[in-house]
Design a protein that fits this description.
The protein is mainly α. It has nine helices and three strands. The longest helix is centred in the first third of the chain and has 14 residues.
Length: about 180
Amino acid sequence: MVINNLFRSTLKTQLGSYFKHGVTSGRSQDHFIRAQLLARLYGSEVSLEKDDSTTVLKDGESFKGHDMLAPFTAGWQSTDTNPLVIEKSEGSYVFDSRGKKYLDSLAGLWCTALGGNEPRLVAAATAQLNTLPFYHSFWNRTTKPSLDLARELVDTFTARKMGKAFFTNSGSEANDTQVHPI
């Protein structure tokens, strides 16, 4: 039973409760502040609270015990609680499966800086996907949209003419590539 509790991360809840209630009887205000911070760090009471948006979808389906492992999520949360299911976006807002509206203050983890469901972007993406969804740039191969964007970037963002534009899939890949000799 104890091992089962440890595997289900209830130790964090127990530690959070200890820090919140037990340590607060310490001898100074500093201890009290630290105890509150530790309770927030190790406690999971808030994440276990019931919320209609995460219990059952509007069609009655539940995703409790789902099969997806999500970053920055404790393993027990994918087994014991329902995820918040986001279904659509409009500008800077996203909507869950029950229609509740949220401000997407992180822009989809910085991937939708121009907002979601922007008609001009949808039209441009659809046109390109219908023509050519992807092609690599290895061995001096490319696409016309890549050449057009490279020209615009070189012409726009340089005080003295930069020689080339190099496209990557992510910021990590761009940072890694910049340190390699050309």
